């Protein structure tokens, strides 16, 4: 039995993988693969409709916000957001909390003016800046809710006088959010929703079509909304597997239930990191992510042997990102408390071995 602590792409429950595998051969007894059925067929239209319905229900998406399933990953949204929301001559406000936030800023600067309201780059993004002000004349305010690489998370929606845009790629569906507080939310599916290849966008309709800019249709949210995410061929398999995973989440009790599990999982792991003298967390305790737990060994020479021990115990994907080093335990929705307990056991065993 393996426990996958990898940061992506696509950490889903075993039963979802199994059902997806069956559908690759014979989708819903059609005698056809999910990969070959027409995206215009009534069978696939039903998949698209159910996926949208599940997102709307699980995240309590209000009327007036459209739900889209697009291609191009969250990285495409770094550009599409300013293309659609930042009028020529206007400016957008961004919070810089890590690699992905910086990339979003870099792309927005190609479209218009950007004001970075605060950054934690001075401390290798180990904390979330506080006490900044969002300018009232910005078109929108963008922040990354969970910093996948650095292991920090923003739990409270920032105060902003202008519409809030959030990259929720690595914590969407892990905890309750109030969608009405957001002008736009986007998330590459590949952590808590489904396989890479589909990107969820939830956008408040009234914000669109106001920049006066003519966009290529593929980069314009409105044609995608008008076509029900079928402006062009949708990523059928990624959407189908997302639907299966959303069904799994609903059957578990939904976002509130998974949030409680995620709180327990994160607390269990951080408690051990804080207790065990061989390990140290890298993120500021008040900003610690519940999804990506970053930590290092006090003694650099312990790093490789601990990874080896973890591997022997079936714990994979723990190597930290190169910009932080050490370890990163990604504990997304599908990673069970059993997996977290197995990691804690390995850390305690390692402590015993190195007394
Ligand atoms: N934003 C965040 C928070 C991420 O974690 C990632 C990828 O891990 C991205 C953006 C980039 O997503 P994509 O690879 O879908 O473009």
TrEMBL record:
Sites where the protein binds pyridoxal 5'-phosphate: 74-75, 100, 148, 167, 190, 232-233
Source species, domain of life: Bacteria
EC numbers: 2.6.1.52
Protein's pathway: Amino-acid biosynthesis; L-serine biosynthesis; L-serine from 3-phospho-D-glycerate: step 2/3; Cofactor biosynthesis; pyridoxine 5'-phosphate biosynthesis; pyridoxine 5'-phosphate from D-erythrose 4-phosphate: step 3/5
Cofactor: pyridoxal 5'-phosphate
GO biological process: L-serine biosynthetic process; pyridoxine biosynthetic process
Domain Aminotransferase class V: 4-343
Natural source organism: Parapedobacter composti
Sites of N6-(pyridoxal phosphate)lysine modification: 191
Lineage: Bacteria, Pseudomonadati, Bacteroidota, Sphingobacteriia, Sphingobacteriales
Binding of L-glutamate, residues: 40
Similarity field: Belongs to the class-V pyridoxal-phosphate-dependent aminotransferase family. SerC subfamily.
Coiled-coil regions listed in the entry: none
Comment on bound cofactor: Binds 1 pyridoxal phosphate per subunit.
Protein name: Phosphoserine aminotransferase
Catalytic activity: 4-(phosphooxy)-L-threonine + 2-oxoglutarate = (R)-3-hydroxy-2-oxo-4-phosphooxybutanoate + L-glutamate; O-phospho-L-serine + 2-oxoglutarate = 3-phosphooxypyruvate + L-glutamate
Subcellular location: Cytoplasm
Subunit structure: Homodimer.
GO molecular function, one term: pyridoxal phosphate binding
Role summary: Catalyzes the reversible conversion of 3-phosphohydroxypyruvate to phosphoserine and of 3-hydroxy-2-oxo-4-phosphonooxybutanoate to phosphohydroxythreonine.
Major enzyme class: transferase
Keywords, in A-Z order: Amino-acid biosynthesis, Aminotransferase, Cytoplasm, Pyridoxal phosphate, Pyridoxine biosynthesis, Serine biosynthesis, Transferase
GO cellular component, one term: cytoplasm
């Amino acid at each position: 039995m393996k426990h996958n602590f990898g940061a992506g792409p696509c950490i889903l429950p075993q039963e979802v993988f199994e059902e997806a595998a069956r559908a690759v051969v014979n989708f819903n007894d059609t005698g056809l693969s999910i990969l070959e059925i027409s995206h215009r067929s009534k069978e696939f239209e039903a998949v698209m409709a159910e996926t949208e319905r599940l997102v709307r229900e699980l995240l309590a998406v209000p009327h007036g916000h459209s739900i889209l399933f697009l291609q191009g990953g969250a990285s495409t949204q770094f550009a599409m957001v300013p293309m659609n929301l930042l009028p020529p001559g206007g400016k957008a406000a961004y919070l810089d909390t890590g690699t992905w936030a910086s990339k979003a800023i870099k792309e927005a600067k190609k479209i218009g003016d950007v004001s970075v309201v605060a950054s934690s780059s001075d401390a290798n993004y180990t904390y979330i800046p506080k006490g900044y002000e969002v300018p009232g004349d910005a078109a929108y305010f963008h922040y990354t809710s969970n910093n996948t690489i650095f292991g920090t998370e923003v739990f409270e929606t920032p105060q902003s006088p202008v519409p809030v845009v959030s990259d929720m790629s690595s914590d969407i569906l892990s905890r309750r959010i109030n969608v009405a507080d957001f002008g736009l939310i986007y998330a590459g599916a590949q952590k808590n929703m489904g396989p890479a290849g589909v990107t969820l966008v939830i956008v408040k309709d009234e914000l669109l079509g106001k920049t006066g800019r003519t966009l290529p249709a593929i980069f314009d949210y409105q044609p995608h909304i008008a076509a029900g995410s079928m402006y062009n061929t949708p990523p059928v398999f990624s959407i189908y597997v997302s639907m299966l995973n959303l069904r799994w989440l609903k059957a578990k009790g939904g976002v509130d239930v998974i949030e409680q599990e995620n709180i327990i999982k994160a607390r269990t792991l951080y408690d051990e990191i804080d207790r065990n003298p061989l390990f140290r967390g890298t993120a500021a305790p008040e900003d610690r992510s519940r999804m990506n737990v970053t930590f290092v060994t006090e003694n650099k020479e312990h790093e490789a042997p601990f990874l080896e021990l973890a591997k022997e115990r079936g714990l994979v994907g723990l190597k930290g990102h190169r910009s932080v080093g050490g370890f990163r335990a990604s504990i997304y929705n599908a990673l069970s408390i059993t997996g977290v307990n197995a990691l804690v056991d390995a850390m305690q065993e390692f402590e015993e071995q190195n007394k």
